[in-house]
Write a structure and sequence with these properties.
With 455 residues, the chain is an alpha+beta fold. It has 2 domains: 199 residues, no CATH class; 215 residues, Heat Shock Protein 90 (2-Layer Sandwich), CATH 3.30.565. 65% of the residues lie in helices and 9% in strands. It is elongated and about 120 Å long. GO terms for molecular function: kinase activity. Its EC number is 2.7.13.3. InterPro entries: HATPase_C_sf, HATPase_dom, Sensor_HK_TwoCompSys, Sig_transdc_His_kin_sub3_dim/P.
Amino acid sequence: MRRFEGGGSAAGTVVTTAVESTGGVREFARLLLGRRARLRWVHLILGGALAMPYVLLGEVFVGPITGSQNVFGDFRLQLLSFAAGLPLAAATSLFPLTRPLEASAVRWLCGVDADLLVYGPARTRAAKGRTAAWFTLHLGFGGIVAGMSLAVPPFAVVLIVLPLFAWLRDSRLGLPEVLGHTWALALSPVAGIACLLALAGCAAGAGALLARWAPALLGPAPEDRLAAAEARAADLAVRNRLARELHDSVGHALSAVTLQASAARRVLDSDPEFVREALAAIEDTTRRTVGELDAVLGVLRDGDTPGTGPAPTLAVDLGGLLRRVRAGGLRLTATLTADPETLPPVLSREAYRIVQEGLSNAVRHAGDDVEVTLRVELAEGHLEITVENPLVPSDSQRPGGGHGLRGIADRARLLGGTVEAGAGAGTGSGGSEGASPQGAGMWRLHVRLPVKFPA
C-alpha cells in the first residue's frame, strides 16, 4: 500500500513538473513573440528605416575616403557607413518635433507609461542632449535589428529545408562547406531554428532596453517636473479661488432668498407691501447670482473663457448687499467708517466676499429675529471687518454650514491678514463653523486686512 502511495506521489510530481515546464515555455514564447515584443520589433524596424538615409549619406563620405567604387557591395564598408551616419542622425534630432514624435512612438509601440514621457520639444541643452542620445540609440539598434530581420530569416529557411532539397546543396548559394557533411546536414534544421530564435531574442532584448531607457532619455528632467508642479499648483489655486467664489455667492444668495421667502410667508396677509419688496429682493438676488454663477462655470468648462461681468466689490455693491439682506427682514446695523472708493481693487473685492459670507453665516445660524452688527473701518493701516450676532441654541439654528469660515481664512491669508471667529471677542478661530454653544453670548467674526499688501 505504501508503494502505491509512493508511486502516486511520484506521478503527481511528474505531472506538476510537466505543467510548470509548459508554463515556462509559454512565458518564454510570450517574451520573444508576444504582442508587446512584436510591437517593439516594429519600433526597431521603424528605427532601421529612419537610419537608411543617414547610411546613404555615410556612404557618400566612406566611398571617397576608402577609394571604393562599390560601398554597397562590401559588408565592412556598409557597417562603416552606418557608423558614420549615426552622428548625422544625432545632429538632426535637434529639430523640435523629434522628441514629441519619438515619445508618441515609444508610448504606443514600446508600452511605456505616458506619464513617464515628455511630449513637448526639447528646450534646454540637457534635454536636447538626451533626445540626441535616444535618437541615436533608436536608429542604431533599429538598423542592426532591421538588417538582421532582412538577412537571417531567408538563411534560416534555407538551413531548415536544406536536407529536403538536394539542388540547394548543389547550387551556388555561398553556403559554408561544412554543410556538405552528413552530420552537419542533419543538424542544419536545428541551426536554422536557432537562428530564428536568436533573431527574436535580439529583437526582444533590444526593444526591452529601449523601453527601459526611454523614461530617462525622453522623460521629464527636474526642471520639467518643477514646471509641471508649478502649473498644477497654479491651476489648483485658480480652482480653489473659483470654489470660494462659487460658495460665497451661491451660499449667500440661498441664505438671503430663504430669509426673504420666510419673512414674506409670515406677513403675506398682513403686509402686502413688505411681501412685494421681498419678492423684488429675491428677483434681484437670483439674477445677480445667476450672472456670477455663469462667470465661474465659464472658467471651469474646457475651452471657455471667464465671463465679462465684473466681480462685486465694496465700492460697487456694498449698499446693494446690505439692502438685499435687510429686505428679508434681518435687523442689521451697519457702521462704515472706511471709504470703499479708496481701497485697492483686490482688497475691495475680497473684503466684499468676507462681508457677504459673514452676513450669510449670521442669517444661517442666528436666524432673522436677532440683531446683527456690521462694522467696516480703517485702523492703523488695516481694514477691519467685524460681524456680531447673539448666540442661539443649536436646536434653533437653520441647518447648514460648510466651508465659509475656511474660505474667509483663505482670503485673509492671501492678503496677509488675520481672522478671529468664535463666541466672544478675541477667541481665535477654534471650533467648527456654525457650532454655537448653548446659552447667552455673542458670536463675533473679526477680520483684519492690511491695506498695503505684497503683490
